[in-house]
Amino acid sequence: xxxxxxxxxxxxxxxxxxxxxxxxxxxxxxxxxxxxxxxxxxxxxxxxxxxxxxxxxxxxxxxxxxxxxxxxxxxxxxxxxxxxxxxxxxxxxxxxxxxxxxxxxxxxxxxxxxxxxxxxxxxxxxxxxxxxxxxxxxxxxxxxxxxxxxxxxxxxxxxxxxxxxxxxxxxxxxxxxxxxxxx
Length: 183
Prior knowledge:
The protein is α+β, with helices and mostly antiparallel strands. Helices cover 25% and strands 30% of the residues. It is built from four helices and twelve strands, in the order E-H-E-E-E-E-E-H-H-H-E-E-E-E-E-E. Strand 2 and strand 3 form a beta hairpin. The longest helix is centred in the middle third of the chain and has 18 residues. The protein is globular.
């Protein structure tokens, strides 16, 4: 089962996230999104899953008017961040590891968002959320973004201008980007 990222440009309220997730999973599984068996549930850590398809793993993110989800045959985490003005040097110094902070020194702001996405996607992959802490691991290896965090693969995916997108975990397959039809 390969990795898919379904996305939708939307100005709508983000309260429809689970409906969109059902729609993407229905397209993946070939069943109706209104099938009651496709209702996502949350495990003890808050990670979404589908009781109907226990081998289908998912993760959701949204930023800057774009909603997306990752679907995979293995545990997965995804994060999307729109590049926007912020005191990123101060944020990195407060929350990131020393290795990441050092690497970001002299880098463009877009690199901050790449690191942030990698870290968020890893936290979503583990299901630990922010309780693990952002400074407990590094998404940088030497003089570049890491290909893995603690042995879990990271994929920095080119997306649309001024956005960073990272997938953590999943299968070794390529990632298919798919537009979610408007419901």
